[in-house]
Structure formats: structure tokens, C-alpha cells
Write a structure and sequence with these properties.
Chain lengths: 463, 462, 168
């Protein structure tokens, strides 16, 4: 698992800090394009808030459509950070090293982007100030002391998302301290002062490194339960509802969490391939890392498929007319059944078939394609859970509706993808997306064992 | 933490221990045998007294079948899973986990009465007064053979696959011992090891075979656990529509299986003389896995509970009252304590996880928790809707708890004793340590110096 | 007498470890010298002193505070405006458990972060003797000795293989 050539500190610094210290020429152009798309999306959102929700395709009973689908999608993408960073750190997988920082930062930005969705979905976003849950706690109505009702998943949601967001940001910042120290030593002027402040006087003595290692493990262990709870609570936005038949399923929590891991890890794999290409990080993001991610994804995808099958089987189990109506829409009515087939194909069968082949796993073009189709499939999955359920919400067929998203919704969705890309590109200019010390540590711990005529790569382990 | 066994004496030492029958072992075997016999007595008494017409009196029997099925099903999965992740710490526990496959034969025997006990899917009487013509099951309208034949095929599939995995994994060890073994063992090893000589081709084939069989076993086991948990529990409680229950069942089985392995490892390390082969690193890593499974268990339980609790639907509230808050509340509390609270309290401490006794204690606790789980679910399911109530859409009245009588107690302890008895016999047949696997591990692990410190060096074969 | 810092820079980890041996042999207490690196070495690799810490107290304290705040927040707000919603009791345990769990984890994590920063003796506004070449891969051996022993220590570090010795 150690196919790379040996690297010294100077080379690691030079190559991994290229995105910060030697910005490529295309950087500002790319930022401008993405920024423009984000501006267009923001203007469209402003237009929607001004004109009202009539400009979207939302109508009774399908009151949740593209925006909520997108919200759940981005929350899902945010799960990659903890999956790769925490679980692989706890299991001491060596191949996690180049992936953790990018995954953690993707987590933070996708969470922030996800939060914009319910914000604009309120139609009157200024009223969400009543919902703000962090200290000091604010009642809806001061005069009558009406407090937010905690007996609803819509209030559990912000508590979970804010907890996860705060934890992820703090986790990233703590892990960045040694890298800020490197940047402090490599820059001058105002950058030097800012990095100096962020590095907090880091020297790199044994005590600081010991605590940095313990921090990684301890915070991973603490964030892991939070990560599981976040998407579970988001799933309970649907799972608690008894009025929408296909939603009220006990399996929603783990189903959504595994789905989130599936889409998130695929997204991180794609981000790593892109970073390798745009910054020339072939020494750091090697084929073995993408191979390992793909093998992890086979397991995650299979787990997801199991939960999906359980959800569908038990949808039919009750043989209740209103639930059968939803399933009928999903599986027999065009175009929903076509979307359903595309979704299952893109999310499980096609990518897993690709990942079962070693040569395909090590081909970065094929892997990029596989990761993209997984995310298209997972976006469709959320859409096919949310909309058909609402479209057949009651047994009263006159109330059934066919949802068609408007261009306003499309623009805003595309805007969120541009927003995350723009934020990732911006942060690559400010902080290294591959942890420097992690890579250097791998070099120190790298060794070999001779067995007969063969030399097997090995690592030193403290426990 | 880490041990570096002397591979030159390993084969001889382990085979000698396999052949020997020290006094404590004999006592344990006899005690387990007595419990086994008592279990048979209880079974016969129940059969004579109540027959196989009604499922109600057999709740405890189904619970003990499920216990044995859970442990024997999930245990081999542990070696499959950690072989897949190439974790070195799994090597001492591989054979222990695979030997549970032999106890799977007990599963088959115990399952036979269950086929007669399961009520038919179709309502034998006409669907009058709002009754369902076909009760709610995963088989929907009930295709041919469902559910009995398919459940039987599933259980056979699980047992046979796990036995194949055991055979394939033990092949090199049997080949090594076939010339030095005597008596029955010699005959058995000669027959089962075939033409194994340890050529490169044979090793590669074994590796590929274990990987493929492992993947197949994993899928089969999860599927069969879904069948058993749905047919013998969920579908017997009217109104219990719960997509997460098969998952909770699987997780409980993983918990019990892993707990059993840790307890067994502790016993053989402490009293079996295997201290030189089983380092604390196995317990250290295993404890993290058990902690993770324990947390997963309570998470899934909470997901089930809060979804049912929230909607205030009578159909779901009655299920909660029956299984959680009213009828089997005491059993539920014990289940929660032994499957989550106590193991969590034990495993959260680093020094405890670094010891051998800590994870083993947690393993013992989760086994008790699993027993409580099975009693709550299967006794509850068997007695939820007697007679034609089973064909109602909802459990109208929450039944009272069913306490065990003497035959139930004998069947439960007998079932557990039978499992232990068969496992102990299995340890006389095959070495309890996978000799080839531990020797392979010794090639990739050594103690080395880095600057002024000494650390473990772990090779990463591909 | 006041102790003064002196920093020796070494190109290889072996030379830095040799310097550590030499300092130990010269009777310099282990508490008076540190190894500065740009990457974590396994504990004890340089023969350095064992660093003890009490980091684990922080998440426990944080969790207790979060648990208390969560229970108080959820129960007191429900009792302050008791509105039966969806047939659920006023003090509903499962939703309380969800919000209390989140507040427990959040406070545990925040306190852990505070603990990490505190136990690392950060922020260190006066950084002390340091050289930017450390983040280029050089290993610094930072020694605090009496003023009168600085020259002796400099000689010791140079003999151990230091490519440069920096004084304040």
C-alpha cells in the first residue's frame, strides 16, 4: 500500500503549498466564472423571495421539491469528512492521509451550502432569526414567551447541523495549526502575521505533537456519533411524518446515513482526482488511494443497497392502499419508473460493476465518471423519496399532483454546486488541502520487512 | 500488547493442546452435556404436553433457537470481515470464530420443529369481521413454499456455507497434522485435507475461495436473518410494520457473535495456555469493534422507538406498549442494560479496553443482553395474537407477559448448553488457533528500532 | 541564575537523537530540552521525556455541562409554554433525548478543543527561540541552560552534528 517514492520535507512543502504560494494562472478566471454563477443563483433566489413561491413548481401537496432534495443531498455530501477522517484515523488506515483534509473541508462547505436551502425555502428568510437556537436562546415571541417546540424534527435539525458544523470547523482548525505554522514560516508581511496568529505560536515540540495526535483520535471518536445523528435527524424530517405514507419508515435513519456516506465518499474521491490533476499532486494522491476508496465504496454501496431493499420491501409489507399508491407511482408510472431505474442503476449496479475491476479502479477517468454517476443517482434518490410521497399524499386522488421544477429551482440548484466549488477553490488558496505533517509522518514511519527474496512495505506502529 | 509466537514449535504445541483433555475442559464438557440433556427433556415434555399445533407455548424455544442461530451465524462473519480488511489482529480469533459453524448443525436440528409451528400465511378461516385473508408478511400473497421451505433453504444455506468456510480455512492445518494425528482425527484430516501440499497455486486458490465464500456467506446470512426475524417475530405481531427490525436483529447477532468470540479467546488465553499466541492487541482492537456495534445497536433501537413513538398511531403505540414500555418492560430494561448501558460503561475506558478481561466482560454482558432481546421478541411474537387474532390488521389489546415454566427454563439452558457442548467437541476436532494464519502473521510482524525507541513493525502484504 | 535558550539545528533525526544522548550524558535534566520537528515522531523516538496530560478531563466536563444545559433547556422551555402538540406529552423524553444528546456532544467537543489548545500550552504569544528551517525538515533541539553553560552546550550540539546553533 505504499507505492509512492520517498519524499523529503522541502519537496512536500514546495509541492503541497503550490496552491497557496504559487497560484496557477487559471485560478482567478475559474473563481470569476464560479462567482458569476453563484451571483446569478443568488439573484434568482432574491427574485423568488420577491415574487413568491409561485415562480417555482411547488404546489399543494408537493410543498417540498428541489430545494429540500438539495438540502438533504448536501448534508449527505458533508458526511464524507467524518467517514474518511474519523473512521480511517481510528482504524489507522495509512491510505487516509491525503484524503482527510479535503474531506473535512468539503464537509464544512457542503454543510454551509445545505443550510442555505431551508433558509430560502422559508420564503421569508428574515423570520428564521426566531429559529436560531444557539445561545442566547431566543423565544419566538418575547411578550408571550413562546419558545421553539422541541417536539419536532424541524427543531432537532438545526441543533444537529449546528453541532456538526461547529465541530467540523473546530476539528479542521485544530488540525491546521501545524500547517499554519509552515505557512507562517514561508510567508512575509500581512500573510505572515495572519498565519502566525492562526498558528498560535506553534513550535512543533513533542508535547504539542502528542496532543495533536491525541486530538485527532479523540475528536474523531467524539465527532463520529454526531455524524451519525445529523443525517438521522434530517431523515426524521420525513420519517416522523405519518401523513406521507412512504416516509413513515423506521429504517430511514440508517438508510440516509449510509446513503450520505456513499455520496460523500464518492464526492471526495472526485475532489481528490480533480486536485491531483489541477495541482499536479501525483506523488500524494496516488492510484492506490483511489483504489482503496473504491473498495470502501463497494462495501458502503452494498450496505446502502441492503437498506434500500429493506425500505422498499417494507413499503409493500403493510399492503395499505395509500402506500401502494406511492409505490405504484414510483415503480409503474412513467417517467417516475424510468427515473427509478436510472437511480438504482447509477447508484449501485453501474458503479459497483466498475469498482469490481482493479484496472477500472486505477483508471482515474473511469473513477471520476463512477463518482459523478453515484452523486447523480443519490440526488435522484432523495428526489424520488420526497416528491412521489407528497404527490400521492392523500387517498383523495383529486389532490394528487405532478411536480415540475421551474427554471428558478434549476438555477438555484446549479448555484449551490458552483458555491461549493468556489469555496473549495478559495480555501485551496489559503490552506493546504493535503495535511503536510500527515504526509511527512508517513515517510518517517515507512519501512520494509524482508521475507525470503521479497521486500514487503511496512510501517512502524506505536500500538 | 503484541506477541511474537515461535513458529517452529507452534504446530506441535497447538496440536498437543488440541489432543489433550485437561480436567477443567472435561468438567465443562460434562456440565454442558448435562444441560443439553435437560434441554432435550424440556423439549420432549413441551411436545408431549402442548404438541406443535399452537406457536404460543413454544416462544422460549424459538427464542433459544434464535440465540444459537444469531451466535453461530454471526461468529464466522467476524473472521470473514476482518480477513477482508486485512487486519493482522484477527489472526488469533479466526479459527475460534469459524468453529461456530459446527454449532450450526444444531441450528438445523432446532429449526425442524419451527417449520411446524409457524402459522400459515393464508387465513384458514374465512376473512370475517375485518380479518385479513392473508396476514402481513414479507411474502405478500405467499408464493409457493413460503415461508417454511424458503426459511429452511436459507438456514441450510447459512450452515453449509459456514461449514465450507471452516473447511477451506482449516485445510492447511489439517494437512499439516494428518501424519502426526492418530485415531479419528487422522482419518478425518486425511479425508478432508485431500491433496493439499501448500503449493503457491493452492494458497492462491484458498485465498480467492475464502474471499468469494466470505462475500457469499455475508449476503446469505444477512438475507436469512431478514427471513427469520420477519417470519418468526415481526409477522406474528399484527400491526408491527418495522423496516429496521431485520437490521436490529442482525446487529444484535453481530454483537452476540463477537461477544462469544471475545469470551472464548479470554478463556483459552487465560486457562488454555494460549497466552503466547493471543496478544492483548486482539482484545484492544476487538473492543473498539464491540463498542462500535454496541453504539450501533442503541442507535437503531432509538430510531425504531422514536419513529413509532412520534406518530401516536394506535397500531404503533400498541406495539411499543407490548415490546418496550408495558408488557415486556422489565425484559426490555434488562436488554437495554446488558446490550448497551453496561458494555458501554465497561468499554469506554482505555485501560479496560487494553486488557484482556475488559472486552471479555463486555462480551459476556452483550450475550446476556442478546438473550433478553430474544426472549422479549420471540416470546412476545409467539404470544401476541393467539388463534384468529393473528389475522387482524392491528393488535387490539396488548397481551400480558408470558412467564417461563420449568420446561421453558430447561429448554433455554439446554439450548445454550447444547451450543457450548458442540463447540467444545469441535475444539477437539480442529485446532482452536488457525496455525497457518498465525504463522503468516508472524512473517509480517516484528519488533524494530526507530532512533531511540522500539516499536512494532507491521508489514502490508498486497 | 536565569536559564537561557539555545537551539541546535540538525539535518537528520539520527544526529538529533545523538544530541539528546549527549545532553543526557552531560547531566542536562530532560525537562530542560525539547525536540522541535515539522512532523510527529513516534513517542520516545528521540529518547525524550514522557509528556503527561489531563486532556481526558475536558470532554467529560464538557459533556456534563452540555447534558445539564440540554436537559434544562428542553424541559424548562416545554414547561414554560405547555402546548400539547400531536398528542405528545408536555415533557417528551425522546425529543428531549435528541436535543440533549446534541448539546452534550457539542459542549464535549468544544471543551476538548479548549483542552487541546490549553494542554499544548497554546496560544504562545511569545514564541521563544525558533528557526523557520524546522518546517523545512530540520530538527531543532531547544535547550534551556544557565547562561554560563551556553558555550559548553553549543560545543556539545555542534559535536553531535548540528549544522547551525542559534542563540537568542
Amino acid at each position: 500500500m505504499q507505492e509512492g517514492k520517498p519524499l523529503n520535507s522541502r519537496q512536500v512543502n514546495r509541492e503541497l503549498l503550490v496552491s497557496i504560494l504559487n497560484s496557477p494562472k487559471w485560478f482567478f478566471g475559474a473563481l470569476a466564472v464560479l462567482g458569476f454563477i453563484v451571483l446569478v443563483a443568488m439573484s434568482t433566489a432574491g427574485f423568488m423571495i420577491n415574487q413568491g413561491f409561485g415562480v417555482t413548481g411547488l404546489n399543494r401537496p408537493v410543498m417540498w421539491g428541489f430545494f429540500i432534495t438539495n438540502f438533504v443531498f448536501w448534508i449527505g455530501i458533508s458526511h464524507a469528512g467524518v467517514m474518511l477522517s474519523a473512521i480511517l484515523r481510528l482504524s489507522k488506515a495509512e491510505w487516509r492521509r491525503p484524503a482527510t483534509r479535503a474531506a473535512e473541508i468539503l464537509t464544512v462547505f457542503s454543510l454551509m451550502t445545505a443550510m442555505t436551502m431551508p433558509l430560502i425555502h422559508t420564503g421569508r428568510p428574515w423570520r428564521t432569526v426566531y429559529w436560531i437556537y444557539t445561545l442566547p436562546f431566543v423565544p419566538y415571541d418575547y411578550a408571550r414567551g413562546i419558545w421553539p417546540n422541541i417536539r419536532t424534527p424541524l427543531v432537532w435539525d438545526p441543533s444537529a447541523v449546528y453541532t456538526y458544523l461547529t465541530s467540523s470547523i473546530l476539528f479542521v482548525l485544530i488540525a491546521l495549526i501545524p500547517d499554519f505554522a509552515v505557512l507562517r514560516d514561508r510567508t512575509t508581511g500581512i500573510s505572515h502575521r495572519i498565519y502566525g496568529m492562526l498558528a498560535m505560536g506553534w513550535q512543533g515540540n513533542a508535547r504539542q505533537w502528542k496532543l495533536q495526535i491525541i486530538a485527532g483520535v479523540l475528536l474523531s471518536a467524539l465527532i463520529l456519533p454526531v455524524f451519525v445523528s445529523v443525517h438521522s435527524i434530517v431523515s426524521w424530517d420525513f420519517g416522523m411524518a405519518v401523513s406521507v405514507k412512504s416516509w413513515h419508515s423506521t429504517i430511514f435513519a440508517p438508510y440516509f446515513v449510509v446513503g450520505a456516506v456513499h455520496s460523500g465518499v464518492s464526492a471526495v474521491a472526485l475532489v481528490l482526482i480533480i486536485l491531483r490533476y489541477i495541482y499536479g499532486w501525483q506523488n500524494y494522491i496516488r492510484h492506490e488511494h483511489i483504489d482503496a476508496l473504491a473498495r470502501l465504496l463497494i462495501v458502503v454501496a452494498t450496505g446502502w443497497f441492503y437498506f434500500f431493499v429493506m425500505e422498499v420491501i417494507f413499503g409493500f409489507y403493510g399492503r395499505e392502499a395509500d402506500e401502494i399508491a406511492v409505490r405504484d407511482l414510483q415503480f409503474t408510472v412513467s417517467p417516475w419508473n424510468i427515473w427509478m431505474m436510472i437511480f438504482v442503476g447509477l447508484t449501485y449496479f453501474a458503479p459497483v460493476a466498475i469498482w469490481l475491476s482493479r484496472s477500472a479502479r486505477r483508471n482515474l477517468w473511469i473513477m471520476s465518471l463512477a463518482c459523478i454517476i453515484v452523486n447523480i443517482g443519490m440526488w435522484l434518490e432523495r428526489f424520488l423519496i420526497i416528491v412521489p410521497g407528497l404527490a400521492r399524499k392523500q387517498l383523495l386522488t383529486f389532490d394528487w399532483y405532478t411536480y415540475r421544477p421551474s427554471s428558478v429551482e434549476w438555477i438555484i440548484i446549479i448555484g449551490t454546486f458552483a458555491l461549493v466549488s468556489m469555496l473549495m477553490l478559495t480555501i485551496a488558496r489559503v490552506a493546504p488541502l493535503i495535511p503536510l505533517y500527515d504526509i511527512k509522518e508517513a515517510e518517517i514511519l515507512r519501512t520494509e520487512i524482508k521475507i525470503g527474496r521479497v521486500t514487503v512495505p511496512a510501517t512502524f506502529r506505536e500500538d | 500488547m503484541w506477541v511474537f509466537p515461535d513458529v517452529t514449535v507452534m504446530s506441535r504445541e497447538v496440536t498437543e493442546k488440541t489432543k489433550s483433555s485437561p480436567k477443567p475442559f472435561t468438567i465443562a464438557l460434562v456440565a454442558a452435556g448435562i444441560l443439553f440433556i435437560l434441554g432435550i427433556v424440556g423439549f420432549i415434555a413441551r411436545a408431549v404436553g402442548d404438541g406443535f399445533g399452537e406457536i404460543g407455548p413454544w416462544g422460549y424455544y424459538i427464542a433459544v433457537f434464535s440465540m444459537v442461530f444469531m451466535v453461530t451465524g454471526a461468529a464466522p462473519l467476524v473472521s470473514v470481515a476482518f480477513r477482508f480488511t486485512k487486519s493482522h489482529w484477527r489472526r488469533p480469533l479466526s479459527r475460534v470464530s469459524e468453529l461456530f459453524a459446527i454449532v450450526g448443525i444444531l441450528n438445523l436440528l432446532m429449526f425442524i420443529p419451527l417449520m411446524f409451528l409457524l402459522p400459515s400465511i393464508g387465513n384458514p378461516e374465512a376473512a370475517v369481521g375485518g380479518e385479513l385473508a392473508v396476514r402481513r408478511t414479507i411474502w405478500l400473497e405467499g408464493p409457493i413454499g413460503a415461508p417454511h421451505a424458503w426459511d429452511l433453504v436459507g438456514v441450510i444455506g447459512v450452515v453449509v456455507t459456514s461449514m465450507f468456510i471452516l473447511w477451506l480455512s482449516a485445510l492447511p492445518d489439517m494437512a499439516e497434522c494428518r501424519h502426526t494425528a492418530t485415531g479419528f482425527r487422522r482419518w478425518l484430516y486425511s479425508k478432508l485435507s485431500g491433496n493439499w501440499y501448500g503449493t503457491k497455486r493452492q494458497w492462491n486458490a484458498q485465498k480467492a475461495g475464502l474471499a468469494l465464500l466470505g462475500a457469499f456467506y455475508f449476503m446469505t446470512l444477512i438475507f436469512v436473518q431478514f427471513l427469520i426475524s420477519s417470519d418468526y417475530a415481526q409477522s406474528l405481531i399484527p400491526g408491527w410494520k418495522d423496516s429496521i427490525f431485520p437490521v436490529i436483529y442482525t446487529i444484535t447477532s453481530l454483537q452476540m457473535g463477537f461477544g462469544s468470540i471475545l469470551v472464548t479467546l479470554f478463556i483459552i488465553r487465560r486457562w488454555g495456555g494460549y497466552e503466547g499466541y493471543i496478544g492483548k492487541s486482539t482484545f484492544w482492537s476487538g473492543s473498539k469493534v464491540l463498542l462500535g456495534i454496541t453504539l450501533l445497536w442503541v442507535y437503531h433501537l432509538f430510531a425504531f422507538f422514536i419513529t413509532f413513538w412520534y406518530g401516536r398511531l394506535e397500531i404503533e403505540q400498541n406495539v411499543l406498549k407490548y415490546l418496550v414500555t408495558d408488557t415486556y418492560a422489565i425484559v426490555f430494561l434488562f436488554n437495554l442494560a446488558f446490550s448497551f448501558a453496561l458494555p458501554f460503561a465497561v468499554l469506554i475506558w482505555n485501560p479496560v479496553r487494553r486488557s484482556a478481561w475488559g472486552p471479555a466482560l463486555a462480551g459476556a454482558l452483550v450475550i446476556i443482553g442478546g438473550i433478553m432481546f430474544n426472549i422479549r421478541i420471540f416470546v412476545g411474537a409467539a404470544n401476541a395474537a393467539p388463534g384468529s387474532n393473528l389475522y387482524h390488521g392491528i393488535m387490539e389489546h396488548v397481551p400480558a407477559p408470558v412467564y417461563p415454566d420449568i420446561w421453558d427454563v430447561l429448554m433455554v439452558i439446554g439450548g445454550i448448553g447444547a451450543g457450548v457442548f458442540v463447540f467444545l467437541l469441535a475444539t477437539r476436532l480442529l485446532p482452536i488457533l488457525a496455525i497457518w494464519e498465525v504463522k503468516e502473521g508472524a512473517l509480517y510482524q516484528k519488533w524494530g528500532k526507530l532512533l531511540r525507541g522500539e516499536y512494532l513493525i507491521l508489514g502490508k502484504p498486497e | 541564575m536565569a536559564k537561557e535558550p539555545i537551539l541546535g539545528l540538525f539535518e537528520t533525526a539520527d544526529n538529533a537523537a545523538d544530541a539528546g544522548d549527549a545532553l543526557k550524558a552531560a547531566g542536562v535534566p530532560q525537562a530542560d530540552y525539547d525536540f522541535l520537528t515539522d512532523t510527529p515522531y513516534p513517542e520516545g523516538a528521540f529518547g525524550e521525556r514522557h509528556e503527561s496530560h489531563r486532556l481526558y478531563i475536558f470532554p467529560f466536563v464538557g459533556a456534563l455541562i452540555g447534558l445539564t444545559v440540554g436537559i434544562m433547556l428542553t424541559s424548562m422551555t416545554q414547561l414554560a409554554y405547555p402546548l400539547v402538540q400531536g398528542g405528545k406529552p408536555i415533557l417528551s423524553m425522546p425529543p428531549m433525548a435528541v436535543v440533549t444528546y446534541e448539546s452534550t456532544m457539542l459542549t464535549a467537543i468544544v471543551f476538548t478543543i479548549i483542552g487541546i489548545i490549553f494542554e499544548s500550552r497554546l496560544p504562545s504569544f511569545k514564541q521563544g527561540l525558533y528557526d523557520t528551517r524546522i518546517t523545512e525538515g530540520y530538527i531543532g533541539v531547544l535547550v534551556n541552560v544557565d547562561e554560563g553553560q551556553l558555550t559548553q552546550t553549543q560545543t556539545l550540539l555542534t559535536q553531535a552534528g548540528a549544522i547551525d546553533v542559534v542563540r537568542k
